[in-house]
């Protein structure tokens, strides 16, 4: 016989579902969330889109394809990509050391990783430009062998490595902590070398976390301003201007159309990067049966 749910049973089910909510105020909380999200995020981003639509496609392309703007995009994207790759390598090494080994001052090193998040980026930029200048602690020795960091694209990469490294470490560290050591033991018992164990057993498990950290560091680097504004030199001739500096420059010249056009492109790039990060996280969640 086919079972049909009665009205009383439906009411009982609804009552039970309502009782499961221990803390009341769902509608009020949802309203506050939507309001704050709209005021702080959605409305400002929508204003950029609306203002950009006032510009004709020809004018938009003309603003984006200017030589200094193209160079700024190229500098920001290439420097951010290179810095993110460096952060993936060294972030994995740091996370591995913090999880797998015990050494004096480990807690201090773990705490210092958060420093780029807490430190004002302008302070970081001033400090790095001083250290890597031709008279600085690091720059003096590097300049003797013909390597110049401050006021070059290399300096931009150094600054972006500084601000992006914590993203990779904090993405990889929890995965390493939860990883069962039996995987390594099983690979060793089957005759796998340490190198093969790392690349065949451990690295595939860390790949989604590494991609997430890479995407976050890349997105942070493209929009970074404070840490690169001093060490880059901001020279259009030497192609050391970043996109964020060009936007500020156009705003100071009251060129709102140009600033908005560049901001829209930045918005699209950031959205695609965050979409990439979310896709990686969803696939990892499905892989570990969390969804």
TrEMBL record:
Q: Where in the cell is it found?
A: Membrane
| SUPFAM superfamilies according to UniProt | MetI-like (SSF161098)
In the record, what terms sit under GO molecular function? ABC-type sulfate transporter activity
Any idea what this protein is called?
A: Sulfate transport system permease protein CysT
Its function, per the record, reads: Part of the ABC transporter complex (TC 3.A.1.6.1) involved in sulfate/thiosulfate import.
According to the record's subunit comment, the protein's assembly and interactions are: The complex is composed of two ATP-binding proteins (CysA), two transmembrane proteins (CysT and CysW) and a solute-binding protein (CysP).
Q: Which residues cross the membrane?
A: 21-53, 73-99, 111-133, 145-169, 209-233, 253-277
Keyword Transmembrane helix recorded: yes
What the entry lists under InterPro entries is as follows:
CysT_permease, MetI-like, MetI-like_sf, Sulph_transpt2
| CDD domains reported in the protein's UniProt record | TM_PBP2
Name of the gene this protein is made from: cysT
Q: Which PANTHER family did the record assign?
A: SULFATE TRANSPORT SYSTEM PERMEASE PROTEIN, SULFATE TRANSPORT SYSTEM PERMEASE PROTEIN CYST
Membrane topology of this protein: Multi-pass membrane protein
Q: Name one GO cellular component term.
A: plasma membrane
Spell out the family assignment given in the record's similarity comment: Belongs to the binding-protein-dependent transport system permease family. CysTW subfamily.
Organism name: Mediterraneibacter gnavus (Ruminococcus gnavus)
User: Which PROSITE patterns does the protein's record reference?
Assistant: ABC_TM1
Q: Where is the ABC transmembrane type-1 domain?
A: 73-277
Keywords for the protein's UniProt record, in alphabetical order: Membrane, Sulfate transport, Transmembrane, Transmembrane helix, Transport
Major localization listed first in the record, in broad terms: membrane
